[in-house]
Specification:
Layout: H1 2-9, E1 19-24, H2 25-30, H3 36-46, E2 50-54, E3 58-67, E4 77-83, H4 86-92
Antiparallel strand pairs: 1-4, 2-3, 3-4
Length: about 100
């Protein structure tokens, strides 16, 4: 998984920080979502992906969310790369703060 995180980091605009989270579907359902698709749709509207051009015309992530597995096919966890202000990341934390050992 460390290799995946390093590759995701390459997609960020220089100077931006991303948070890659593995969200258990059981926690998503506890927050009132029927499934991973409804959760992903809601959060994609709230935090749309914003790209910016860096040298050579390359597009990098400025802000927003990108799901790194398919919400329609997720069975146990949904993975998401979040490039958001700290206050908005705190909202996402409710999906993992109730996990044992967290």
């Amino acid at each position: 998984m460390g290799r995946v995180a390093l590759e995701l980091e390459k997609k960020l605009k220089p100077g931006k920080t991303g948070f890659w989270a593995l969200l258990p579907l059981r926690e998503i359902r506890k927050q009132g979502y029927e499934n991973a698709e409804s959760f992903a749709s809601d959060l994609s509207r709230k935090y749309p992906l914003q790209l910016t051009e860096v040298g050579g015309g390359e597009q990098r992530i400025e802000s927003g969310l990108i799901f790194t597995n398919d919400p329609a096919r997720a069975q146990e966890v949904l993975t998401v790369l979040a490039v958001l202000p700290a206050a908005d990341l705190a909202e996402l934390s409710k999906f993992w703060t109730d996990l044992p050992g967290v």
